[in-house]
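Record 1 of the preview.
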Amino acid sequence: MLDGSKQETLLEVNNIEVIYNHVILVLKGVSLKVAQGGITALLGGNGAGKTTTLKAVSNLLHSERGEVTKGSIVYRGDPVAGLDPAAMVKRGVIQVMEGRHCFEHLTVEENLMTGAYTRGGSKGEIDADLEKVYTYFPRLKERRKSQAGYTSGGEQQMTAIGRALMSKPETILLDEPSMGLAPQLVEEIFGIVKDLNEKENVSFLLAEQNTNVALRFAHYGYILESGRVVMDGPAADLRENPDVKEFYLGMSEEGRKSFRDVRSYRRRKRWLS
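->
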């Protein structure tokens, strides 16, 4: 298990606020760190702010009339807020969007090759990297001549991650990789993420509603609710935390409540006693 305390910080998000359409406050003082060579999970329900956080890092907010209005985002010691998305890709930061975005009319292999568009390198190097992608995703090699739009959801997710790998990333921002996939496929995708992390030294910041599976594969986790970080810690500690078990791992007989509401209730109870 990676020890985050001994790892260099690759990405640091400091107290950012994000506003859409000049009025809608979505993130409220979010801070997090991603260690080099680590898998960091961003957890929480739908609408918690996970995707917005990833898009703030990759500078994809402007296309949706969103902007970071406070705080800073630093990658390898340099502020990156003013960079365009293409400049982030050149720095090695690639976002794999939620919903398995592929070019549906292109074949699987053509989709993968688009990932090499922004990088340098000889044809031999690119071909070698393509074979490496096929080593991690043997199913894609079988389907390489198939039109991406006619492949399964799992194969499209693999294609999207494989395309990101073709750009030789240092950090992948992976948004909801388990969404809409059968449990067996989810395990397969996360197993490949773990292999890429350990064998290729790719760092991951992944947004995921499936807290259970994410905390089994991540090294560190942050839990978001309503645009705020309500808890963070090593993944092993979060898995054993009773509040996380109750509200995010489905191990309580009670109905799901707001994690923040329960914490504030417990604080009030302590103050009153």
